[in-house]
Design a protein that fits this description.
It is a single chain. It is built from 15 helices and six strands. It is elongated, with a radius of gyration of 31 Å. Helix content is about 50%, strand content about 10%. It has about 350 residues and is mostly helical. Strands 1-2 form a two-stranded antiparallel sheet. Strands 3-4 form a two-stranded antiparallel ribbon.
C-alpha cells in the first residue's frame, strides 16, 4: 500500500514537473521574438476569418515559427475569440505575445486620404476608391441622398461642398458613412461662430457662402486673387448681374468632355450662371478654408469683370469697355497666333 502511495506521489510530482516545464517553455516561446529581422509586413484580417487560417498565414509570412504553440498560447489567453478585422503592421522581430496584443487591440494600419481643395463629389468618390477605402458608387449614393444632408442639417440635396478638403486617416474597409461623418464634422469645425456671424452681416446663409466659395475655388489660379475674385462676384450679386462663371456651367453639363462650347453657355440648367441670375442652387465643389474666408471677406473693389491672362492670374476691370480690351489682349490675340 505504501509503495502504491509513493508511486502515486512520484507520478503527480512528475506530471507537475513536466507541466511546469511545458508551461515555462510555452511562456518562453510567447515572449521570444520569432526573428531578428525587423521587416514590416501589412497583415490583414478579414471579417469572419477562421483562426486556423489566420495562424497558417502568420506562419507563411514568417511572423511566427511554431503554429501549434501560438494556437495554445492564444487560447490560454482567450485571445483567439477577440481578434479584430483590419490591417496591421507586424514584424517577425515581435514576440507572439506582442503580435496577439496588436491583433486584439484592433489598432489597425491607417491609410492617408488626401482630398484637394476644389474636388467635387465624383472626384472625392474616385479618390476613396483609388486608395482602396471603399466603393465609389456606394459612397456617391450616400453622399447624394437628401436624407444624409438632412441628418447633418445641411440645406442641400447632397453633401456637395460640405466634405472638407483635408488629409484624413482611415483603416481599410471603413464604412462610407464613417468617412462622410469625419469630413462633414471637419467642415463644421472650420466654419467658426465668427464666420456664422459674418455671414449674417452679409445677409447670406451658410449655404450661400459655401456655394460662392466653391465658385471662387474653381475660378482661382493664383491663391492671392481669391479676395479679388470674391469682390467681383459680390459686386455682381449686389447689382443683380449674372455671375457668368464657366465652372458653374461645366458642373451642370452631364458627362462634360473638357471642351466648353458656345451652346453650353446658352443652354439653361440650374447651374448655368450665364442664363440664371444669382447663385446656383448649391456648391459645385468642396471649397477650402481660404476660399470660404474670401467669400466672407471680399476685397473692397469696384471690379465687375475678370479675364484670364493665361498665366494663372487674371486682369480685373470695373467696366465692360476695359474688360473687352483685356479679352482682346489676353484671349483673342493669342488664339489668332499661328501655330509654330
Amino acid at each position: 500500500m505504501k509503495a502504491f502511495k509513493w508511486s502515486a506521489i512520484l507520478l503527480v510530482a512528475a506530471v507537475l514537473v513536466i507541466s511546469a516545464g511545458s508551461g515555462f517553455a510555452l511562456w518562453r516561446y510567447a515572449n521570444t521574438p520569432g526573428s531578428r529581422l525587423d521587416r514590416q509586413i501589412v497583415f490583414a484580417i478579414t471579417p469572419g476569418e477562421a483562426f486556423d487560417t489566420l495562424i497558417s498565414r502568420l506562419k507563411h509570412e514568417g511572423l511566427i515559427s511554431t503554429p501549434y504553440k501560438f494556437k495554445i498560447w492564444a487560447r490560454l489567453k482567450g485571445a483567439d475569440k477577440k481578434l479584430k478585422a483590419g490591417e496591421y503592421h507586424l514584424t517577425a522581430a515581435m514576440t507572439p505575445n506582442e503580435i496577439l496584443g496588436v491583433l486584439v487591440d484592433g489598432k489597425s494600419y491607417l491609410h492617408h486620404l488626401t482630398i484637394p481643395e476644389g474636388f467635387n463629389l465624383k472626384q472625392i468618390a474616385a479618390e476613396i476608391a483609388a486608395q482602396g477605402l471603399g466603393d465609389s458608387q456606394a459612397f456617391l449614393e450616400l453622399a447624394t441622398d437628401p436624407k444624409t444632408a438632412s441628418k447633418y442639417e445641411i440645406k442641400n440635396q447632397s453633401l456637395e461642398g460640405y466634405l472638407f478638403p483635408d488629409t484624413y486617416l482611415f483603416p481599410k474597409g471603413v464604412p462610407a458613412a464613417t468617412i462622410i461623418d469625419k469630413m462633414v464634422h471637419r467642415f463644421k469645425e472650420q466654419f467658426s461662430p465668427q464666420w456664422h456671424a459674418r455671414a449674417r452681416e452679409l445677409h447670406m446663409s451658410v449655404h450661400e457662402i459655401v456655394t460662392l466659395a466653391s465658385i471662387i475655388e474653381k475660378e482661382t489660379g493664383d491663391p492671392a486673387e481669391r479676395p479679388l475674385i470674391s469682390s467681383v462676384f459680390h459686386n455682381r450679386l449686389k447689382r443683380k448681374m449674372r455671375l457668368e462663371s464657366d465652372p458653374t456651367v461645366i458642373y451642370g453639363i452631364k458627362d462634360f468632355d473638357g471642351n466648353i462650347k458656345r451652346r453650353h453657355l446658352t443652354t439653361r440648367t440650374p447651374y448655368n450662371t450665364y442664363v440664371i441670375r444669382g447663385l446656383p442652387p448649391g456648391p459645385i465643389a468642396s471649397p477650402g478654408r481660404a476660399a470660404i474666408k474670401a467669400a466672407l471677406y471680399p476685397a473692397d473693389t469696384s471690379f465687375l469683370f475678370f479675364v484670364s491672362k493665361k498665366d494663372k492670374t487674371h486682369h480685373f476691370s470695373t467696366n465692360i469697355r476695359e474688360h473687352n480690351r483685356a479679352v482682346r489682349k489676353y484671349q483673342l490675340r493669342r488664339r489668332s497666333k499661328p501655330k509654330s
